[in-house]
Amino acid sequence: MRPLRASLLILGLIAPVPSLAEGERSGEFDYYVMSLSWSPNWCELTGDARQSAQCDADKDHGWTLHGLWPQFTRGYPSYCQSGQRPPSRAQTGAMADIMGTGGLAWHQWKKHGSCSGLDSADYFALSREAYARINRPEVFRKLDRAVSLPASVVEEAFLKANPDLTAQGITITCKQGHIQEARICLSRSLEFIPCGPDVRRDCTLDNALFTPLR
């Protein structure tokens, strides 16, 4: 898609479940998947019903960090056997600025962070570093109303904002007709890499809903 057409579409002027293993040994994985969630869509589909603080208008959340997930070439570990102490409430609460709530940070540590081989402080520090490495396209924050657009336009916007990222290293997911997440594959040293086959499950909708900041 040509840049002008993509920009117009963005502005509105215009699957199978992967295999997983629970209780794997911590630190044994191949790469990371960083999942970014468009907060206004999550709030519309889920967060408002939960009365989540993430959805308060004064929070101004856009792309939030859903999680940094250790991943196998196929499948992923979860709830790993780890000798690390769980994070404190202060640690999880400190992640709310990029994750929306401390509750999500706790859940992500329990399910995914426990598989990283890191202690909770280092895992959250690495998660914050990964989040900072991706340029989140500013154009989505400029929307003043809900628009329908091809999911491919969202991917193209991320690729344009991150020249070292390739189409094989990102996938856009949808849920209930809405853009849901951008999932970006990273090496253990947080370099962009191609995703495994079970992660590359792009949404193919041509009219996915994208709601504006609150």
UniProtKB/TrEMBL annotation:
Keywords, comma-separated and alphabetical: Signal
Keyword Signal: yes
Listed name of the protein: Ribonuclease T2
One Pfam family named in its UniProt record: Ribonuclease_T2
Organism the protein comes from: Sulfitobacter profundi
Family designation: Belongs to the RNase T2 family.
Signal peptide: 1-21
UniProt KW GTP-binding keyword: no
Gene3D superfamilies: Ribonuclease T2-like
Annotated InterPro entries: RNase_T2-like, RNase_T2-like_sf, RNase_T2_His_AS_1, RNase_T2_prok
PANTHER family membership: RIBONUCLEASE T2
